[in-house]
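Morning!

As promised:
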Amino acid sequence: MTGLFERFDPRARLLAIAAMIAIVASTPPGALTAFPCYGALIALLILTGRASGYYLTWRCLAASPFILLAAGLLVWQGRAAGEGVPAAWPLGLSVALKGYAAALLLAFLTATTTLGELLEALRLLKAPPVLNLILAMMYRYTALLSEEYARMERARECRTVSALGKRRYSIFGHQFGTLILRSWDRAERVHAAMLSRGFDGSWPVRRLPRWRWADSAFTISIPGILLAARFLW
Amino acid sequence: MHIADGILPNLWCGAAHGVSWTAMYWLGRRIETGEVVRLGMLASACFAASLIHFPLGGTSVHLGLYGLAGILAGRRSFPVIFAALLFQTILFQHGGLITLGLNALNMGAGALTAASVWRSGVGREPLRAFLCGFVGVLVPALLIAVEFSLGGYGKGFYFMALLYLGAAALEGVLTAAVVGFLRRSRPAILAPCP
């Protein structure tokens, strides 16, 4: 079952979310009045999709260290400059709110749009073919190579009876080297298999639904409302 | 360290997007499909390895492997890093969509510096490999510190960059170990890249 947001073309979703993040990020430092409106609009948008609240919260929390560090530095710098915390906190708060709003929007996009759809959207938006191909390979093989590394790690632990000590980094280096060798060899095999299936440099993808007027309306209207809030409040 | 959205001015992020997409097109042109497959697999391997954390001075750090990417892919490490960052942004929200260009330029500068150090041929190979890993981490950390300083965040990130010296040294040691292993087992991989 899909929500309203998921029915739009992935290109429309990607462009709308990118525009919304740019608008939120362009809010002047310390201007806090627009944020309740941003919050309401983002909440409404999230209600139209089928994203898990747990996933969104977790993703925002994962982005916290960098956002809070930047916001904290602004407040600390304001205090050091003799302005005092009361004068500096709106700056820090606005940076934190912008950071969290952007993280929430990005998490919502990834929760409602598969990586395959995003790759198709990027291809149709004329992203370089090299980028699409590298991303597609990463999409297919990252989990596989992570599991391969985990197997190597388990095998090493099973065969190592004492602590690694000073040799630790050398042994980890050899493990990474082995992983690179294996991925190199796998790349040769994968490429040969792709060529045997008639691969001509473009990634075969399923056909996207046609771009409809509703996609255009969505791409323009949602960021448009946010832009109005940005300038009116 | 990936810069999140909404923290640095949009104008900078837009300009960085322009530069990094241009670099992506420029450095990614005329790459054969077989090489792209290898680059994609290298990106996956580096990404898988970067998910592993190492203990360092009571805390833990994860590897960036930008220096190793510079050694193995040369100037084509930039498309690899751009793709890996986009992948991380989409899957894990490390960084942001608007700051993708800025993050790619920061990390890409580390990889390209490492590629230059590797190609320079100065010094013995283990030392050069160590330096590649070292600058692969330190150059992005310093660039981030400069950007935040110019963005009005003060000098706090310079202190952070200093803290990254330990991580850079660890990355240098691991890069030297990987290069030593590859030299013994498959030296062709270390052949000069375009």
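Chain A touches chain B through 69 residues (CB under 8 Å).

Hope this helps with the figure draft.
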